[in-house]
Amino acid sequence: MTSTATASFVVGKWEPQATDEAGGTEFARVAIAKTFTGAVEGTSSVELLSASNATSRAYVAFERLEVSVDGRKGGFVLHHSADDTGLTLKILTGSGFGELAGISGTASIEIDADNNHAFTLTYAL
To answer: pLDDT digit string (tens) for 73-108?
Structure first.
């Protein structure tokens, strides 16, 4: 059975770790920390790698969430992949732990005009 959990989150840390530019394309590495409230409650840490130039940009990231989802405590890793065509967020198979062991699914992020972040997790346990 598939369930949906929604939350909001704030970015508490955004720390560029390294940048490199060659041939008009910049690489960047960023460490990020988030705090979630709602049906997903807890924190996460993110390692993000990006590439950008005058015509396109893309990033990949791994996000380790230590959260409760609909009251179940544990965590999992979320794999981000994004480019100019969109964002894909998938739970890394086998990464669930605690009461979230065996979790699978996807997520989405929406950012409104006031820069509020909404997170929707569609999952199965």
So the answer is: 999 999 999 999 999 999 999 999 999 999 999 999
CATH number of the domain within which 79 lies? 2.40.350.10
Tokens describing residue 72: 């179940």
Residue linked to tokens 């994004």: 82
Q: Please give the Cα distance from 82 to 15 (Å, whole number).
A: 19
Query: How many domains would you assign to the chain?
Result: 1
Which residue range forms the structural domain that includes residue 43? Answer: 2-124
Q: Write the pLDDT tens digit of every residue in 26-83.
A: 999 999 999 999 999 999 999 999 999 999 999 999 999 999 999 999 999 999 999 9
3-state helix/strand/coil string of the chain: CEEEEEEEEEEEEEEEEEEEEECCEEEEEEEEEEEEEECEEEEEEEEEEEEECCCCEEEEEEEEEEEEECCEEEEEEEEEEEECCEEEEEECCCCCEECCCCCEEEEEEEECCCCCEEEEEEEEC
Measured distance CA(111)–CA(103) in Å, rounded = 25
